[in-house]
Amino acid sequence: MACSKETLINHGVKICPSPQTQGRGLFTTRSFKIGDTIIEEQPLFSCQFSWNYAYGYSACDFCMRPLETAEENVRRLTANADIILPHPECDETDKSSHIICSQCAVTYCSIECKDHAWNQYHKTLCCNMLGGNPNHPLEKLNEAWKKMHYPPETSTIMLLARILATFIQRIDREELKCQLMSLCHHTANEEDTIAHKLLGSEFESQLELLRDLSIKALGRPETDEFLTPQGFRSLIALIGRNGQGIGTSAFSVWVRKVSENDIDPTTDSLIDTIYQEMEKESGDFLNNEGSALFAVQSACNHSCEPNSISSFPFSNHTVALVASKDLQEGEEIFISYLDECVLSRSRHSRRKFLEENYLFHCNCSRCQLEVDEPDMTSDDEESMEDD
Ligand SMILES: C[S@@+](CC[C@H](N)C(=O)[O-])C[C@H]1O[C@@H](n2cnc3c(N)ncnc32)[C@H](O)[C@@H]1O
């Protein structure tokens, strides 16, 4: 099956070569107004991070929708079982639709998610033992990964396991391979750098250990080509480079609903207090966290002057690209890979961050405009970078 270079995705966007980045980019095929949703997309694969799951962050095993109520969420993260959250009508968690895998007890937010997971990969990955089985090859693989990749997490080997299991279960493997091949790929050197970033200085021996455990867990004729040394390194680099972070939280949905509907101004100070307590007890680890691979959204290049933003409006793994400026037909759609803080820094700092974390020299319009700025990091920025 041929993978086309210029792919018409739907009536709003297409993927084609980007003059700015030399690779591909995502372009509009009609105009959009600021605030318009350009696309909504389900991932090819998504998975909660391994430590995040182990620490009791509770999300649907398929779509990452929070499974706790907002009140349970704040009680756990503040370690304060006495907090009572008003306005339960703003809590979106519907426990009546939750459903558990009868064989291994992972939980889904709905029967639809359970069926999707089973039909896509869970039939292969289910350990068939309630409460888990520490001797199961997949559990050994996950434990080995956890020892190599501590929080803050940026990926999980279980995403790779889901890809392999999908290959085992899928009938139209060529189509799936084509979708994976269409994600951003790299040279062998770049793959090494990504593996190094994910696994640390001993990445070569660690890669070999992970490969060996993956063969024991999921080695089949259908997965042979991904479990050679080269195939495995490419797959690790693929999830390391293309994985889009996802964060979901029952409390932030509750906060959004309370604030959107202007329900009760007195909740403002309660929200502030809860966030302070959560930060004291749980630091930055407030969300169910994971990562996902998106076929269309992953074609979106970075700009330090973006014209759209990625968001997760349904508190699950569905991504939305929303226009942050008016867009003309044929314009390239750019998001920012940097957070607001880094985005506000000098050209030099932004480019340094992108080079170190994303391995590319930013060639966006803002960087080109600021080309005459001195290549210096100010003292303030230096201390921010150190942080
Ligand atoms: C998620 S991919 C985006 C799609 C990619 N251009 C492709 O051909 O598939 C990210 C990669 O695109 C390239 N890229 C994205 N934004 C860029 C920019 N502003 N300047 C130069 N390269 C960029 C880099 O190679 C980066 O690793």
TrEMBL record:
<dbReference type="InterPro" id="IPR001214">
    <property type="entry name" value="SET_dom"/>
</dbReference>
<dbReference type="GO" id="GO:0008270">
    <property type="term" value="F:zinc ion binding"/>
</dbReference>
<dbReference type="Pfam" id="PF01753">
    <property type="entry name" value="zf-MYND"/>
</dbReference>
<dbReference type="GO" id="GO:0045814">
    <property type="term" value="P:negative regulation of gene expression, epigenetic"/>
</dbReference>
<dbReference type="GO" id="GO:0032259">
    <property type="term" value="P:methylation"/>
</dbReference>
<dbReference type="GO" id="GO:0042799">
    <property type="term" value="F:histone H4K20 methyltransferase activity"/>
</dbReference>
<dbReference type="Pfam" id="PF00856">
    <property type="entry name" value="SET"/>
</dbReference>
<protein>
    <submittedName>
        <fullName>SET and MYND domain-containing 5 protein</fullName>
    </submittedName>
</protein>
<dbReference type="InterPro" id="IPR046341">
    <property type="entry name" value="SET_dom_sf"/>
</dbReference>
<dbReference type="InterPro" id="IPR002893">
    <property type="entry name" value="Znf_MYND"/>
</dbReference>
